[in-house]
Amino acid sequence: MFRLQGSKVLAVEMTGDAVKAKNGSMVAYDGQMAFKKLSGGGEGLRGMVTRRLTGEQMTVMEVRGHGTCWFADRASEINLVGLRGDKLYVESSNLLATDAGLRTGTTFTGLRGASQGNGLFTTTVEGHGQAAIMSDGPAVVLRVSAQYPLTVDPGAYIAHQGSLRQSFQSGVTFRTFFGEGGGEAFQIRFEGDGLVYVQPSERNTIAGDV
Amino acid sequence: MTLREVNSKMVEATVVPGQRLFSQRGAMLAYKGEVSFTPNIQGGQGGLMSMIGRRVAGEATPLMTVEGSGTVFFGHGGHHVQVITLTGDTLYVEADRLLAFEGTLQQGTMFMGSQGGVMGMVRGQVTGQGLFTTTLKGHGAVAVMAHGGVFEIPITPQRPVHVDPQAYVAHHGDVRNKLSSALGWRDMVGRGSGEAFQLELSGNGMVYVQASEEKL
Amino acid sequence: MSAYGAAGAAGPVVYDPMTLPVDDNVNKYTFCVELKSGQWFLQKGKMIAYYGAIDFNGVGHGRLDRLVRTSFHSPLHASDWVVAEGSGKMLLADRAFDVNSYDLDDGNLTIRSGNLLAFQPSLALKQSIVPGFLTLIGTGKFVAASNGPVVFMEPPVRVDPQALVGWADCPSPCHHYDHGYMTGVMGGLRALTGLGGASGEEHQFEFVGAGTVLLQSTETLMAEQATGAVPHEPGVPGGGVPATGRPQQPGAPRLPGQLGDLQRRFGL
């Protein structure tokens, strides 16, 4: 059972069951816990090979035991996401923990990754259960529907779920008094039906300077 | 109480004549009234012995004495601040996590190694803070800094608590500490590294843990 | 109706354009601005998401000349600002710092340039005489960030320069040097060796008179926004010299966890 202790610590009560968590993110526990390193986030050999190819660095551990285990990572804000059969797309560096029963994989996301220096691939989480994702400051969850498409700064994007199409559009035209180029910034436009998680902060991006 | 949390990152101290306060140098944000700040070389009280102890310990966190009459606001580096009130017991805390504390508290240095063998060594290795830790004893309030805020885990005889040494902030009470390693943990992080161990705290008391594995 | 986020009480709050607040905070770190065929000035890089049809143009954009002439009097850092115009709702945030809006009613408020995120064009933005600060004059709303919530104080008060967000109405911010701290053994050592650096204890900004002082919990984490040099002419303090402020960490975006600068502070 996932529970937030404050906004930056995830407490998981375990009675013999297991969670998958970012390697080394355990800050404390009571009771008895056993830790196991998992090789790659995907399923079995295929997942591993995919990971090799994609270069997505996500080292995951499995924690199993009786008691409470507390997780945190660099004072990041933690957001709980409930999945009921749908798929969550999240930057691997923003995934803290998932129920052991959820399947994790990798998917190609195209340009966005490139603009973030995060690789072209994103982690997917699928199934029924809970996931904990991290953000710099608490995430704001925004709904996308047919009449309300959403535009997001790539540096503030952390995750989305549902059936969404993404496209790139140029953001700002910078022309200053001196004519010096601020260049153009990219934005991601989401259309379809789903939720987008944005953080109140921008990562170091190459293009998302709006 | 002399120290009051204004918000998660700032404390307010009331200074009255005859009651001094110690704070980390550079942590004063603003003040009202007639207040003086005097840097201490040897950090708080304790005289020569403490000074030598500190030299050895490498805990050269510069402190200053705050005296006078007025109100002082403290904060540092945007870190979260937590006020811990001591009622006669001893708080164990790394010196550079101290933001401010009341002059009524007795300051000392303790060799952590004496309490749990390898502990001190590994703590030192992990946190890079030497084998010594600061103790504060008596009655009074302490403002402690942490990365991302702290949460408390009670320690009871039935439920020892294991803490990642890098997330450990402070503890008080009648607590024994030693190093242990959970099943599988050492294989995961690598046997040689200092991270292979957890700080196991048992007895009766409270441990403060921060939401981050980063030291200040 | 969307199938997602109908999780009920247990799930996080899900916002759409109807439920997002109007010109108010979504949470402590995110502010929502509603545009109805209107305009706002934004500092570059502070918009994180928007619904609707909103255009962003650099302040140098020709079409905006008239607006800039009336509301923007700080040409030396014009390249840091954009004008958002159109209709919709947009979210503003800044490195997960606390964000708040302030209403001025025929008033004035001076703010550290790095802390200002956005303002309505009904306000005029000008460079303060104090280097590194900007003054907003008029009636309207602006949005500013701070490290930790802003604490409001009445003069007389002395403030560590690094903890100062800004001030309203106060006529006389001036420097105060703590004599006791500068002299004595440590002061002497510092004077001789230059070691130990400067901290708030020997030098403060002093405010007296009627007004309000805005204070944040420290300090060097907010990247200083270059305000550019003021013209080199007689009677202008700091003229011709770029206002670099204190020796700050460079304006590189802070990664999560990169807090504190104890090493620098302690001269290590």
Automatic annotation (TrEMBL), chain A:
This protein's name: AIM24 family protein
UniProt cross-references to SUPFAM superfamilies, sorted A to Z: TRAP-like (SSF51219)
Taxon lineage: Bacteria, Bacillati, Actinomycetota, Actinomycetes, Kitasatosporales
Pfam families: AIM24
Domain of life assignment: Bacteria
Record InterPro entries: AIM24, AIM24_sf, Trp_RNA-bd_attenuator-like_dom
Gene3D superfamilies per UniProt: Mitochondrial biogenesis AIM24 (3.60.160.10)
